[in-house]
Amino acid sequence: MASSVPLTPKGSFPRYLEHLSGSGKAIGVLTSGGDAQGMNAAVRAVVRMGIYVGAKVYFIYEGYQGMVDGGSNIVEAKWESVSSILQVGGTIIGSARCKAFHTREGRLQAAANLVQWGITNLCVIGGDGSLTGANIFRKEWSELLVELAKNGKISEEAVTKYSYLNVVGMVGSIDNDFCGTDMTIGTDSALHRIMEVIDAIMTTAQSHQRTFVLEVMGRHCGYLALVSALACGADWVFLPESPPEEGWEENMCVKLSENRARKKRLNIIIVAEGAIDTQNQPISSQKIKDLVVKQLGFDTRVTILGHVQRGGTPSAFDRILASRMGVEAVVALLEATPETPACVVSLSGNQAVRLPLVECVQMTQDVQKAMDERRFKDAVRLRGRSFEGNLNIYKRLAIKLPDDQITKSNCSVAVINVGAPAAGMNAAVRSAVRVGIADGHKMLAIYDGFDGFAKGQIKEIGWSDVGGWTGQGGSILGTKRVLPGKFLEEIAEQIRAHSINALLIIGGFEAYLGLLELSAAREKYEELCIPMVMVPATVSNNVPGSDFSIGSDTALNTITDTCDRIKQSASGTKRRVFIIETMGGYCGYLANMGGLAAGADAAYIFEEPFDIRDLQSNVEHLTEKMKTSIQRGLVLRNESCSENYTTDFIYQLYSEEGKGVFDCRKNVLGHMQQGGVPSPFDRNFGTKISARAMQWITTKLKESYGKGKKCVSDDYICVLGISKRNVIFQPVADLKEETDFEHRIPKEQWWLKLRPLMKILAKYKASFDVSDSGQLEPVQDQNTQGEPAAI
Ligand code: ATP
Q: Which SUPFAM superfamilies does the protein's record reference (predicted)?
């Protein structure tokens, strides 16, 4: 953390960032259209990054209306103006729909107001309508200025001085209806709200044997409905992009009664608010309820979620996404030239990218056109690969084909959980079991990890056995840290006894080590020469071969939530610094990303060595901070970041050095990070990655079938991971090179590039290759983009 020194005073801009100097520039930031959780994090990042690079940043209150009205609607933002807003839903600068901005007169007035403040850089956070408006404004800008000069509203010099307007958009919308980004700001939080309601409803519905019809938002986009259906294992889902086939009324009722016959006590039907049939006629939740009551006589209730979905605190993902996008937006504005087209900053895989705004808006409108013209297949395709993938998996997992329609493979595939529990493991097992059964395999569950494997704790597991597993935390199969090395003989014996043809391992670093041991033992034990694949599941996110692992998003949300509460606990007690220890072993992912999401002042991690000078500099930073209106500090410390600078040590050091200025409290979060119900992301990630793993197993089994030889080559024993935009299977043996075995982390970790971002937003000077993307990318065919959602 050598670069963690307080921000340089005005005028002494660090040399390495000179090309990004915002000195003399003014940036206006506004939120427009419907609000979404995470907009505040985006505003905060724009303000802080703008001030950091030496620009002036102005809030434009009430969207375009404030721009048209001017006056007190345009106010310079200070560093402190955006403190304590990360955790707040909605937008503190207000959002509105503005008729006047649709007219040239309105835009003329808006231009006059911007010129008055010298604002020639605009950062718009909103949906496609808002971004379209911004682009029109940008194109007209020079003409508007000429007209204003002609009317005597501005000087001729002003026309030259402010000759062009730079525009950058960020998509804030809970609907995730914008082409070009994997996730819009607010979508993940909306999914959190929906899942909270569904989880609550499931408990009451279980008690009474009820059918629930749940209507979720999304206007003409079915993303929220589809992903919620996937995350809760809904019986049926209605989407605008993929209307049900004719005769759906009958099919749905058959499906519901079949599920009841399988002793399923509740049915969940999810309806997107814009759901339609193949004739473009709306399908309302009431209509569905009436149908179920009439045809089946089931006790059926309708719940329309409404604005609950827009409310509440933003999820960790939305805070991080919005912070990244906000910083990227400022960089894009600083790098823009008169020739640069307006762009949107968005997310592709785990990378920030800049895309041409006009093309993205066009593609977004094309989806609607396709639906209007009843070209539903096109609509699904245009929504993107991830949407299509979600839909296919939903269909596979929700509907069990009759046994006589499944071609038996005569293969047995076993599933095992290894290591510490991680939220989402059960969703992964459910998905594997169902996909495996649909592929004709006999599915076997191994209980209690490798220990149970050696002891023969193996049982066949069926379609209904895994019903309702998506929302359950921990590991229902049972999981242990024990490695297979000392039981190889016994495990080989069990494989033979149960005729296991392939193995799916769901777990963390122990699972990875276990897979390596099994790989190495294949020469000695022929039984081990079967396809084996591991999907990463650990809160620590430290498995080589994957950028993400199941469970870490849930843990991150727990950390973020707890930090919010802890910060709030000091609202009446001024001048307090909290030191919070997170899990992760040597991997600093949780501390770093938790720090970013919770707005920490520092996050100590093993990967970035620090010394007493850094600690001293942080104390000075906090001392300075106590002189401002923000008299609160938050410092995260990864549990193994340093052998000697322990949490107690840091607490004592801060307490001593901060005497008279601030006092300290420490919290060790511990196992609460491993528990809890899985987040929507972990449910879906677990579901999709595991389905992908089973698909691989089926292919490998077919490949080797009848060849009479065992699967000895390394590509039969793989880790399945996500890397940038791609899903990749890597032979476990190849990953050895990439692993720091002593510290149980991958040698390269993508998230380290976000370290400077947290420091900048906490007012530290940091050397920052700020931009993930650094340049405008052409809009990609949605079919070629988007991981991890696109598994
Ligand atoms: P949401 O996804 O929440 O609906 P949105 O940005 O699409 O967000 P809109 O109501 O379409 O919401 O647009 C918000 C505001 O942006 C409008 O009230 C208007 O001021 C401005 N705007 C939208 N479209 C245009 C346009 N074609 N020309 C000028 N201004 C526009």
A: Phosphofructokinase (SSF53784)
